[in-house]
Amino acid sequence: MLSFDDQVIPLDDWISLFIDWLVEGYRWFFQGLKWPVEITLSGMENGLLALPPLLFIAIMAIIAWKASGIRLAVFTIATLVFIGLLGFWEDTMITLAMVFSSVVFCTIVGIPLGICAGRSDRFEAFLRPVLDGMQTTPAFVYLVPIVMLFSIGNVAGVLATIVFSLPPITRLTALGIRQVHPELVEAALAFGATGTQVLLKVQVPLAMPTIMAGLNQTIMMALSMVVIAALIGAGGLGAPVVLGLNTLDIGLATIGGLSIVLIAIVLDRITQALGSKEN
Prior knowledge:
Elements lengths: L10 H40 L2 H15 L2 H16 L3 H31 L1 H16 L2 H12 L3 H26 L2 H9 L4 H30 L1 H5 L7 H10 L2 H27 L3
């Protein structure tokens, strides 16, 4: 008689054996995957930390002003000055470097995948369950294999963030391509445009507002991963939150979380404004 009192399928053991096999036999491959992320992250981190704070604030204010207007520019200045006065300037630059690095790789991988999924029903059917698994798997579950394959630190945090943040830009890129009216594509083909020209001059420009919405969601998910990535040694604004949690210092955890929220609001408003300009 079938009983559910004891474990019958040792799936956890099989997964552990599989990860051990990957670590022992293909560590060189995963270290190769880690290299471009490490180079990108270190370049962005060194660049942001080298910028004088006032210059960085001015650059962000100009971007906010051009994107949305004077109100967002003033809010951006106030936010960055406030975070600096809290003593979290260096942590903020590290967090932004991690987020920007993650978004770069999510964009490089996610937009081509989304275009392929938007133009091919068969590829979209294959990709959909993969993205479903990436989005619904709890973020903490990523950490164990990431640490085993890539060790700990900021690079491992970025890699976990890439996996966590990739689905939105991929899904919304595919959605944007599919929402382009078929008659527009047929008209372009009728005028002699090639498949590449149709993609680059018709489908992608018309899908750009949806793609920008995907970029916005990817940035937000990357920021939400900051605290979780701090559990595997990643620095930035997640570190004071985790430290406050471990020491029951509610004040430290609160101001760390508040800084993340304020940065998220600034980046969200900027990317939303840029996306609305594409309409």
